[in-house]
Amino acid sequence: MKKRNILVIIGSASKDSSNSKLIDEFTKLSRSEFQVTTVDDLSVLPHFDPSLTERLPGVVSEVLNRIETADGIVICSPEYIFSIPARLKNLMEWCVATTVFLNKPVGLITASADGRQGHAQLKLIINTLGAVTTEDAELIISGIKGKFNEKGECEDPELLARLNKFEEGLKTLLANK
Q1: What's the whole-number mean pLDDT along residues 158-173?
Q2: What value does the mean pLDDT take over residues 68-90?
Q3: pLDDT over 70 (residue 25)
Q4: Cα separation values, 33 from 3, 6, 8, Å
């Protein structure tokens, strides 16, 4: 059985973020099911400019193509000031004038100190873009920084179980598309 191509978009502005560590765990957990690739540096995208949508900057076109050609997307993001990070919002703005998310299966992970408000905003944005989500392919992880040891490894069995359940929800979402 062919592995599904999953593109993970990491919304964090930090290089060695808890979100990146979480995606490392997801990648290990799901390696038999998914071929996971990441977009983890959204700082390379220029600020959204509607006048450039007719002729997209190359880096924007490349990211949009990766979204469009993936079997499914996972967005993993922290919550910054009760919202999504500016860099992730910028990417979503570049997607507004396209159909790259239309009917695309998307799993959502918000991993932060709290995360509820940022997650609600992320879900609203992704639904506005026409993506398909389900509650089984969503995960809010509060207190994420305390879930990893000094080596960056997750030793929290509850989190690993929830991540496993998320993977199952994502598999179901992909199977229904």
Answers
A1: 96
A2: 97
A3: yes
A4: 5, 10, 14
